[in-house]
Design brief:
Shape: elongated
Distance between the termini: 14 Å
Order of helices and strands: HH
Structural class: mainly alpha
Number of domains: 1
Helix content: over 70%
Strand content: under 5%
Length: 66
């Protein structure tokens, strides 16, 4: 449900970035065990995980009824 006061552009930006990050996370780990990842892959995975948390919070704010 879209709220009247919701910023549709901001919602779209957050959603697109969130989907891209989630896709990258899945591609990184599908068919592999976590201990097979290189140190750089683990660091990138953790960085994306932190950003996903930030985006989920931002999305909650955008969707919050005013």
């Amino acid at each position: 449900m879209l709220y009247e006061d919701m910023d549709a552009t901001r919602f779209e930006q957050i959603s697109r970035e969130l989907l891209d990050l989630l896709d990258q996370q899945v591609v990184t780990i599908v068919g592999r065990s976590f201990n097979e990842l290189t140190a750089e892959e683990v660091q990138a995975y953790q960085s994306r995980s932190r950003r996903i948390i930030e985006l989920r919070s931002a999305l909650s704010e955008v969707l919050k009824p005013k």
